[in-house]
Automatic annotation (TrEMBL):
One of its GO terms (molecular function) is RNA methyltransferase activity. Signal peptide: none annotated. This is rRNA methylase. GO terms for biological process: methylation; RNA processing. Residues 31-104 form the RNA 2-O ribose methyltransferase substrate binding domain. SUPFAM superfamilies: alpha/beta knot, L30e-like. It comes from Lactobacillus hamsteri DSM 5661 = JCM 6256. InterPro entries: Alpha/beta_knot_MTases (IPR029028), MRM3-like_sub_bind (IPR053888), Ribosomal_eL30-like_sf (IPR029064), rRNA_Methyltransferase (IPR051259), SpoU_MeTrfase (IPR001537), SpoU_subst-bd (IPR013123), tRNA_m1G_MTases_N (IPR029026).
Amino acid sequence: MQQISSVNNKLVKELAKLNKKKYREDTGLYIIEGFHLFEEALKANRRYQYLLGTEDALAKAEEDYDVDLSAKNVILINKAIARHLSSTKNSQEIFMVLKISQPKEFPFNYGKWVLLDNLADPGNVGTIIRTADAAGFDGVILSPESVDLYNPKTQRAMQGSQFHIDLIISDLVDAINQFESNGIPVYASMLDKTAKKLPDFEPVPQLGLVIGNEAHGVSDFIAKLSDEKLYIPIKGQAESLNAAVAAGIMIYHFA
């Protein structure tokens, strides 16, 4: 086990940069924080580049998860370094550095999929992925313009679901074309005059469900490619629903 005691250490400085998208892209690495994500990564047999923790955190990792503290890639840090690396106010003082292994195109597979069309809010994206996982969907396809999957806020919102279902960053046009050429319907969530009410749709064994950008909705071109447009009836006076809430209602409708 290595030990680092200064926030000015070269490795610490490099790992702290992983909270920024550009550095994640440059290095092909990302960092997760906290025991829940740490546990989910271990369950998924993910190999880590580094495991960093304070004395108490590493003792817990050894006792509860059989982590070999003698390994060279396990690093003992102090609380000051933990605060420096943390993206939260109250860090659990355990960090895992993982390789990004993200497909850049959709390798077609039958099932139920959520397609995210340029979503901008990391909390929404993470919540939708977590909901899709809970509902038994097969995966989520994110347009390249959607928020970064490895954003710390997205990681926290996913709560480990990133290790349970397929997550693909792909051009949605290509994905939709593959769905439709294989007889899988694609439904777009839209507030549109031509849209149909969600209750009018029966659950189907396989589908692609498109969720649009929080401010602008589903893009016109993606909407035209979809088989049907649907919306959730609003009974009160709210103009619309939060993207993650609307996605959750629709996902469970089709689950």
